[in-house]
Amino acid sequence: MSTPMHNIHFIRCQGFCALLTLCAVLMGCATERPYEETLGKRGWTLILHPAKTNPQDQMAYAQQLLREGNKKGALKQFKALSVFWTGAPEAAPAQYEYAKLLEERGNLFKAFDEYQYLIEHYTGAFPFDDVLQRQFNIAFHLMTTKKGKFFLFPGFSAPERGVPLFEKIVANAPEWTRAPEAQYLIGQAYELSGQYELAVVAYMASEYRYPHSAFAEKSAFGKTQSLYLLAQENPNDDQARDEAWAAITLFQNTYPKSEFSPTIQEYRKTIFRQRARAAYNLAYYYDRIAKKPKAALIAYENLVKLFPDSDWTGLAQVRLEALKITVENTHDKNP
Questions:
Q1: Contact between residue 283 and residue 296 where contact means Cβ atoms under 8 Å apart
Q2: Which of 166, 178, 217, 291 is deepest in the core (most CB within 10 A)?
Q3: What CA–CA distance (Å, rounded) separates 320 from 261?
Q4: pTM greater than 0.90 (yes/no)
Q5: Residue 258: which of 224, 231, 227, 229 has the closest Cα?
């Protein structure tokens, strides 16, 4: 026979169980509540509207359109999802699909920017390496493909188009396996577009950021070649010529067995002749124009010493002998 105290305990247990059941029901209801956007829409959307009322159904609808081959419709609906429900779990996959469809349609600049938005706003919610590779492919295509093609007009090269894109890739993932190549291609894009000073800076960044990569030697060659071309563009610039000579010497010392050695050797011969010619011009100026025999004597002596096998060494030696006599006679007259 149960006691009053036993009945009280029984009633308390029943009440506690009922309370647990009520909490479970309430929690279940909470998990089933529809998604509510708290971050707000992304940008202006005057004509863009989602077909469904929640991100889950919107995602399913966009995917269905894609499976049915309606890529234009799928593109709009993926975009609508990422715009109207920016904080939903489906937003990142929708943004990814939207960018891929833009890329497939050939809207490459826009696709690159949408991949970039994915990287900047949805870290860890998408296949990072795949997105980087897609950005790389877009940048390389824009760098190497002519722009402005129309009917019979072949278009023109614009490699500099790839520069800001490769810069973003390196900034996105400086340790990525293709980051050294991306940095190298920045230098190459500048070089191909004739912006040699900027090419030198980019190639140097590649050398020092990634000294052990497969692109370190290529970057060193690109830097040297750019400095050489700068010297050819500015034949009267002694500093440009000296910087090219220093880069050539450094490259030969660092990469003595390089595949670029034959080209570097030709550059060296050209710069050597130009430096010798500049040295002769300086001596000639002191000799014939400024009429300063002592200064001319020193300049000719330097030429013979530094460039013993140049085309101007013979002329310098002839003048040296005459100037020695002139300087000695002047010294005798002015003891």
A1: yes
A2: 166
A3: 36
A4: no
A5: 224
